[in-house]
Design goal:
By secondary structure, this protein is an alpha+beta fold. The chain contains 4 helices and 16 strands. Helix 1 packs across helix 3 (249-259).
């Protein structure tokens, strides 16, 4: 499956109840009795403010050198944007290239278990389908190519999209409830704020919940999160509170990802009848995929996957 798709179509109007949920059960989706346009506009109504934050302790890349400050990590590009040659590399303060997948920490290092680091691949309201190249040395960002053509969405994505570093959806392990294997990528994350982040930005986000998408038969979790610098972050700590403030945000995300490949005659599906899962369950998913990443790095996964797993430097984040 892909880390994000290309395009979408008119969204179906479907009504669902909105019961509360336990940490172990999937959530019921928000009501969807509005038109597709109204639904997506409601999802866009979440407001944020700018503000780059950094973490206060190192990540845990095995075998790395002395930690460096994430606040000082920059990027540089090679090639020509809009062509297959374009690459965005991540740099340490000394100018050494590092891997955004393996060397940037997942955890913020303080007593905030639901706050993690996100690496932005696709800024909101853009169409170019960028992602880190998991098979190239140092995992630079590049525009995805399909059938020899640079991939773009058929319409813009309405949220900032990226991944959680130091996570991996294991394609050798079948989820016991969903009965699907991981998609061999880092864990995807959808940041719902209205500020357009830049490609390559590292953002501190609060995990709210997740949707279990099935793409080409593979499990492709979509974690829903909110930038901690967002004014809404003072009142929204989970999906229940998000739905109270913006009832159609979760529905908009789910239906966008359901339909975004429809111009290519493909419709995505969701486990748990499209219900989202709770914040606590999502944290367990994050922890499981982080453990899978550790197994991958430690050579415990026996299947040949052709992924670049080398280590440059561990990133340290400081407030």
């Amino acid at each position: 499956s892909s880390r994000a798709g290309s395009g979408g179509s008119d969204l179906a109007a479907v009504a669902h109840p909105r019961p509360r949920h336990s940490a172990l059960a999937p959530r019921a989706p928000a009501a969807m009795g509005r038109s597709a346009t109204a639904l997506l506009l409601a999802a866009l109504a979440v407001t944020t403010s700018a503000g780059r934050l950094t973490a206060d302790r190192a990540g845990d890349s095995a075998g790395s050198e002395a930690p460096i400050s994430a606040a000082a990590v920059t990027t540089e590009t090679e090639g020509i944007e809009g062509t297959p040659s374009f690459r965005r590399f991540f740099l340490s303060p000394s100018g050494e290239r590092i891997s955004p997948w393996h060397d940037i920490p997942l955890d913020t290092g303080d007593e905030t278990p639901f706050e993690k680091w996100m690496v932005v691949e696709i800024p909101k309201m853009t169409k170019a389908k960028f992602e880190i190249h998991t098979k190239e040395p140092l995992n630079p960002m590049a525009q995805d190519i399909k059938k020899g053509e640079l991939r773009e969405y058929h319409g813009p994505i309405y949220w900032n999209y990226g991944f959680l570093p130091q996570t991996w959806e294991d394609p050798t392990v079948e989820h016991p409830l969903i009965r699907a294997f991981g998609d061999n990528d880092p864990l995807d994350i959808v940041e719902i704020g209205s500020r357009q982040h830049s490609q390559g930005e590292i953002r501190r986000v609060r995990i709210l919940g997740a949707l279990a998408m099935i793409d080409d038969g593979e499990l492709d979790w979509k974690v829903i999160a909110l930038d901690v610098s967002d004014p809404l972050a003072t009142t929204v700590h989970n999906l229940d509170e998000l739905e109270m403030a913006h009832p159609y945000a979760v529905s908009g995300i789910r239906e966008w990802f359901r339909w975004y490949k429809s111009p290519d005659d493909q419709l995505n599906h969701f486990a748990f009848d499209g219900h989202s899962v709770s914040q606590q369950t999502t944290l367990e998913v994050v922890e499981e995929t982080h453990a899978a990443w550790r197994r991958l790095r430690n050579g415990e996964v026996k299947r040949e996957l052709d992924l670049w797993l080398g280590v440059a430097q561990e990133v340290h984040a400081e407030v």
